[in-house]
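Re: [help] complex structure
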Amino acid sequence: MKAATKQGKKKNTLTPMTFSLLHATDFADRLLYRIIPPLQAGMIVLADRYSYTAFARDVARGVDRQWVRDLYSFAVRPDLAVYFKVPIDVSLDRLMARRVTLKFYEAGMDMGLSTNLNESFRLFQSRVLEEYDHLVDEFSLGVVDARGSITDQQRVFRRMVTECLESSRDRSAAAAAAS
Amino acid sequence: MTDPQPPQPPAKPVEITDNGARADAAAGDWYGRGLPYLSIDDYPGKLIAIEGTDGVGRSTQILMLREWLEIQGYGVVETGWARSELMQPTIELAKSSNTLNKLTFTLLYATDFADRLEKEIIPALKAGFVVLADRYIFTALARAGVRGIDKQWTRDLYGFAIAPHLVFYLRVDVDTLVRRVLEGGGMDYWESGMDLKAGDSIYENFRTYQRSLLKEYQSMADEFSFRVIDAKKSITAIQTELRRQIGEFLAENETPAPGRMDLEAEPR
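Output below.
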């Protein structure tokens, strides 16, 4: 799976559709082997990116909004989904500060928005962020203001996770009492 | 996720929503939601799909059709299942290591198809070629159906496909099919549906698997208006029938050369 994605990315031959489908295939593999079994064992699974990434990124590339939602309908709905939100400039500054070279697809260079890597990144990721804003309402994502310090973000994040775990514990307790 | 499959209940009538591949899509148009970033208005080419299980002689028929069409001056492009540049190595690898489950299997095939659709099929149609597809999305729908994948989900998935102008389905009965495949070099793991883990007898699994595949194709024959051809007939008889129907279709849809139109429009 990884081989085809890598190969396609290396040669920059992926279309918005094959990009979307390859990532969905990889996601399906991880879902079935790495996510569902630990959930069945009663464990907590922390997923760094989930189907929402595809909803934002693939739609920003021009893939149909409803199609990509239908595609991921096999995914497990998370108990809690949190979106770490930053303005595009902050995101670009942080990447530059780490001196990372932007990747071709990450910068949306396949879209032909600009021949300049940084400019293309800014244009493409702005579209991605716009999609995320829609997702927050549509899927009731928790939002963490990621402009703040890591400590502040972590505090907010922990409170969200704690609330989620407590309400799920209350629900199981209520279910147990009812039966 | 890979529990043994119980015998399939009779196929439930599929409730078709507007999102997915559906029967009432106009020939040559998107089946469902399509590719919003690609326009396919008014392309001059024609898309003809030849469907059918293994052992019905699809490749022989396509070879003969190609020759016949080229002699008449048509440009012909062939496209085959799981033959995309992007995905073929991965699919081969995944098949040989048996690590695919039914969901990733379905998604890999869809990726392969998307690659061929955008890189081969659509450009050829826009350039005015007759595209002969050796298997089309129906193969994927049938295989996924046998593996118990939600029918609406697979149809939505393939909503980005183009509805062919013609779909021929070369139909055989399971006895003929089994004998032809055994003659032609035998069964492989996937064609026997061994991933469904129904039992140890390869022959029995193969028969059961092919029988359920035939059922899936049959249920699609009405849904997608297949032109059904009896594949037990001789190669020549099948070819004659294909040529007759394709010839009629192409003649009806022949666009007159613009120069000639102008001449006729001139007052005499």
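The longest helix of chain A spans residues 150-178.
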